[in-house]
Amino acid sequence: MSLRRCVPCVLYGVISSTLLGHALSTYMMHIRKQQVIEIGADGIAAKNKGYLFDILLLGARAFKNSLSMILENNHILKVTYSCRRIAGRLRAQFGVNVTNVYDTQVADILCFYTETGGFLPDRVSTLQEVVKMPSSRLSSLKIRSLLSKEDKEVWYIRPCPASLLKIMALSVIHLQPLRLADYTGLVDSYLSSSREEPSSVLELPRELRELKHMRQEWAINRYPVTEQGLLERSNSRPLPPSHPKTT
Question: Which domain of life is it from (predicted)?
Answer without folding.
Answer: Eukaryota
